[in-house]
Amino acid sequence: MGPRLIIVSNRVAVPETPRAPLAGGMAVAVKAALKNRRGLWFGWSGKVTDEPVGEPQAVEVNKITYVLIDLSKNDIQEYYNGLANSVLWPILHYRVDLQEYSRADASGYMRVNRMFADRLSPLIRDDDVVWVHDYHLMLLGRELRSRGHRNTIGFFLHTPCAPPDILQALPHHRAILGGLAYYNLVGFQTDNDRDNFAHYLTSQGATQTRSGYEFEGQKVRLGAFPVSIETKAYMRLARNAGRSAMVALVRESLSGNRLVLGVDRLDYSKGIPDRIRAFERLLENNPEWRGRVTLLQVTPKSRSEIRQYGEIETEVTGMIGKVNGRFGDAAWTPIRYVNRSYSRTVLAGLYRAADVGMVTPLRDGMNLVAKEYLAAQDPGDPGVLVLSQFAGAAKELDAALIVNPHETDAVAAALKRALEMPLEERRERHAPMLQHLLENDIKKWAEDYLATLVGGQPARSLMAGIRAFFGAPSEQAPLSLR
Length: 482
Hints:
Elements: E1 5-11, H1 25-34, E2 39-49, E3 57-61, E4 64-72, H2 73-92, H3 103-120, E5 129-133, H4 140-146, E6 152-156, H5 164-167, H6 173-177, E7 185-188, H7 191-203, E8 207-208, E9 213-215, E10 218-224, H8 231-241, H9 245-254, E11 258-263, H10 272-285, E12 293-298, H11 307-327, E13 335-338, H12 344-353, E14 356-359, H13 368-376, E15 384-388, E16 401-403, H14 408-420, H15 423-439, H16 442-454, H17 460-469
Parallel strand pairs: 1-2, 1-5, 2-4, 5-6, 6-7, 7-10, 11-12, 11-14, 12-13, 14-15, 15-16
Antiparallel strand pairs: 3-4, 8-9, 9-10
């Protein structure tokens, strides 16, 4: 039967129905890698239980087998809200000042990584390829190795990776970050992220080899693999979504105003307060745009149990109220702020309707919103992307208006330029970026990573099996976990 691809992530996004829209950039990326291929997607179901965590449960939707485990309240508090999102997330995003480390949370992180390994281990066949995703599961490779698995195991970090001086601010960093050396290949979004981790390894005594690095007896390769989107499918989705009732209502409510769109989780890394300041500065410096442009900020809440996320919500709502009170009138609200999620279809329609897409994080691994915005545009009359230099996407999408989100006046000036950009220049900027996304879509990302992961393996059947994942879809294997 050949090898299967087993994907492991903290959260598994199982569609409620076969036609349900996908939520989250990573979910779309991982699901695209498995679509119509033999394999499993293993991870947390999203359910929190008061009972001891039981055996994994399998469900099949759209010919993908999902293997789900529940987590306890204590797991969520220590592993997820604790070390993963109150320590690793801020450090990886260069925000040492926001980390809140505790030994209990570190213990919980290690415990849950062990539990993932315990539940996953019996399901792994000798020739399976395992692909682990993101900062929640840095230790899973080490745990699987300790259980005797010699499979090809890869890891991909969807966040940025900070320089060594910042990574070393993590207490017991060698025990956690050093765990990545137990993977065959660690993938990053950009060359800079990869190089930062390489410098970290060498700072800890790793030696460079012809193919990678050797650290504490483990050999690991590093690579940069920029995540992308299903470009052609998203283009079709946006063309159709532009005619949806919701998008029509938004267009009508604008009364001819130009639309600037921001779509971000409510997270301090996204630079939403800085974006509001820049929009306010645009209105300050350019009175002719008052009453003619609206910023729509779509910001679903996330991780609200963590203190810093409550603080950013208070800050953002206060700033928006100030701007609307200062510049708005009975007929025009400068900033519309929505704390809810929309389906991919509605978002695609909003992207297509927006004259300007503002993607201005303070630090981001990739930021797929930037790529979705470009793919959603009408090539004959495209909008303009204003993109932070600190988003991983800026390395690829260099025909956007690249800005430093900390420079309020410069971002305001870029906004003005975007709103006033002639059609010919908009087309000239959009066309090469769209072509890049067509040539480097999500399928190519997965193919490139997996080809690199298994390329050094001697077994021809392994490489042939991986190629089969991305060739003609194979027959679906029975819903057995072994």
